[in-house]
Amino acid sequence: MSETATKDKVRGAVLGTVESDKGDKTRKVVVAFLAKHPKYGKYLRKRTVLRVHDENNESSLGDKVEVAPCRPMSKTKTWKLVRVVEKGHGS
Fold first, then answer.
1. How far apart are the C-alpha atoms of 12 and 61, rounded to whole Å?
2. How many CA atoms lie within 13 A of 77 on its CB side?
């Protein structure tokens, strides 16, 4: 596989931080973003918590990861791990 094929953007992929790695092959990833208040215009920090499928258990607490949507694997798990962008300082 060429280098360009591995660096291609995955459709719908987002970056987030691993908040929990307690489950086997499951990670809790937090995606933080800013949203503008409709009336006052102030930017507010918001976050989305995703359950992510990590087939090889390659991510750990505090890692910055790229995740993409996939078919439902369980009631709450509808995202899969694409790659670990940066290793964190977690345990």
1. 23
2. 14
Domains annotated on the chain, with CATH: 11-86 (2.40.50.140)
Rounded to whole angstroms, how far apart are CA atoms 26 and 16?
A: 14
- How many C-alpha atoms does 13 have within 13 Å on its Cβ side? 15
**Residue whose structure tokens are 């991510």:** 59
pLDDT, one tens digit per residue, over 73-83 is 999 999 999 99
pTM above 0.90, yes or no: no
**Strand 14-20, strand 26-36: pairing:** antiparallel
pLDDT tens by residue, 25-34: 999 999 999 9
Beta-strand pair 77-86/26-36: unpaired
